[in-house]
Design the sequence.
């Protein structure tokens, strides 16, 4: 195989990884195949389903619509990076568990990343705003009701977190 | 499927980017990739070289002044959408942008990329046509300005040359006495619409002195129809019916997997009446507010 390899450094969940990839390697495939971070799921591979959504410099983006070479130099957060430093579930993960926001779990990583950024931008979403926040993500199991509940619950948990941080400081 | 192999360059200056394009007749520009990467993954396109323009300096600006709105090639839809000055100077831009895909796609996709991708189902090419905006492009021979009326030549085909890079789009400001409205019908919010209509209506007192409507997903290029004569000064039910009929006479709705031609014609009729009325109300409100 003579396809040119690009030596790039990816910063994923705060850890730097040096990899050699062909230019056409999608970020989603680099995460899963080159780095073994299989939490990011791939459904449609053309931007429609949202399963592959990761945070790039804090903003949700489709990892199936980015090349790994383009992600070099940016901070990428995958679902593996959403847990608390002590390994406990982060607020969005916790809310999904409490509200039964998942069944098979295929779509879940994309929802978790999208909602993490969504509640950072809008810390008190109404139910309508919660629906809007997840409108670009498809779930074939839950019927969305519990995901909408989980968005509101996650926002609540994140607010509690901030309140206790402020209290501790 | 995965993209076919290609060479990848990410130049740091416009000159280098233009050279890379000039050197490779089969090179393609990569901006946000939200339209191009799906085409590559489905192997509907297989360029030999991708010229990634994301590192080019000074192209991510969004500026609004009395003349209008200027959007750099690397400004993402999301940046343009949240700019309050843009909304003040040309409110049709955010009205339409809110219907472009989902927030996640808007975080990466560029407005200029959408304009030159020239999809007749996309919102912004139609808005550029309706407002008589333009796109500035840089090429080996220097810069030129392409008026929207000359930009769209066929389905997914713009009049940009292969070795040119669109650097900035210009949307003229909303004129005095004018109002705007936008509405589209899609199966789900964020999907490409089966039909969408925008209108600019100018009033003097309660009389319509000019009215134009833009149509997306109806013809194979973004279409604009002047409705001034058909409305004959008014927006009552008779005038609106005449306007919708006049529009359909100039449009040629097409059938595809998403909707039949008849259904599109029906949507165009209903939406024409709605957006013309809404743009008229908007014009009256703005005139009242500034008195
Ligand atoms: C799931 C999904 C839903 C979507 N829904 C909508 C929708 O409802 N409405 C809508 O309008 N769009 C929609 N889009 C497309 C989106 O708006 C894209 O962002 C936009 O069409 C292209 O911008 P880009 O920066 O991503 O361009 P790219 O994908 O990088 O490029 C698109 C094309 O334009 C060329 N190009 C890009 N920039 C330049 C430049 N500066 N100079 C010359 N050529 C250039 C490229 O070579 C390529 O041919 C959707 C996309 C997805 C994935
Ligand atoms: S796999 Fe990326 S959006 Fe479906
Ligand atoms: S939980 Fe199965 S697809 Fe969403």
Sequence:
């Amino acid at each position: 195989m003579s396809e040119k390899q690009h030596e790039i450094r990816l910063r994923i969940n705060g850890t730097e990884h040096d990899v050699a990839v062909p230019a056409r390697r999608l970020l989603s495939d680099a995460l899963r195949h080159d780095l073994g971070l299989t939490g990011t799921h791939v459904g449609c591979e053309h931007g429609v389903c949202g399963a592959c959504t990761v945070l790039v410099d804090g903003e949700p983006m489709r990892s199936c619509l980015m090349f790994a070479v383009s992600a070099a130099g940016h901070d990428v957060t995958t679902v593996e990076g959403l847990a608390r430093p002590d390994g406990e579930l982060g607020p969005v993960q916790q809310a999904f568990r409490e509200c039964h926001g998942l069944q098979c779990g295929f779509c879940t990583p994309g929802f978790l990343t999208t909602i993490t950024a969504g509640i950072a931008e809008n810390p008190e979403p109404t139910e309508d705003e919660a629906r809007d926040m997840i409108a670009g993500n498809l779930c074939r199991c839950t019927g969305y009701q519990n995901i909408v509940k989980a968005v509101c619950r996650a926002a609540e948990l994140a607010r509690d977190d901030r309140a206790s941080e402020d209290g501790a400081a | 499927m995965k993209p076919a192999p290609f060479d990848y360059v990410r130049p740091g200056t416009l000159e280098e980017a233009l050279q890379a394009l000039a050197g490779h007749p089969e090179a393609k520009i990569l901006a946000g990739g939200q339209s191009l990467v799906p085409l590559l993954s489905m192997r509907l396109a297989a360029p030999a070289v991708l010229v990634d323009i994301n590192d080019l300096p000074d192209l991510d600006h969004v500026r609004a002044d009395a003349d209008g709105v200027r959007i750099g090639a690397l400004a993402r839809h999301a940046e343009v959408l949240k700019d309050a000055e843009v909304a003040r100077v040309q409110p049709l831009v955010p009205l339409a942008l809110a219907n472009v895909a989902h927030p996640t796609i808007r975080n990466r996709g560029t407005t200029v990329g959408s304009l030159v991708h020239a999809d007749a189902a996309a919102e912004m090419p139609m808005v550029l046509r309706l407002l008589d905006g333009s796109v500035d492009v840089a090429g080996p021979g220097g810069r030129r300005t392409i008026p929207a009326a000359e930009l769209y030549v066929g389905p997914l085909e713009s009049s940009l040359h292969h070795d040119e890079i669109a650097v900035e789009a210009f949307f003229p400001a909303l004129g005095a006495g004018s109002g705007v409205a936008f509405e589209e019908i899609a199966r789900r919010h964020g999907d490409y619409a089966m039909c969408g209509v925008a209108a600019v209506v100018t009033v003097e007192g309660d009389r319509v002195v000019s009215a134009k409507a833009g149509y997306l997903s109806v013809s194979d290029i973004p279409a604009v129809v002047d409705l001034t004569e058909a409305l004959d000064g008014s927006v009552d039910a008779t005038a609106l019916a005449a306007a919708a009929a006049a529009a359909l006479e100039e449009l040629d709705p097409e059938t595809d997997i998403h909707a039949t031609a008849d259904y599109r014609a029906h949507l165009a009729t209903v939406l024409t009446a709605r957006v013309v009325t809404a743009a008229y109300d908007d014009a009256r409100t703005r005139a009242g507010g500034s008195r």
Summary: DSSP finds twelve helices and 14 strands in chain B. The first helix of chain B runs from residue 14 to 23. Residues A 102-107, 139-142 surround FE2/S2 (inorganic) cluster (ligand 3) (CB under 6 Å). The domain at 7-52 of chain B is CATH 3.30.43.10 (Uridine Diphospho-n-acetylenolpyruvylglucosamine Reductase; domain 2).
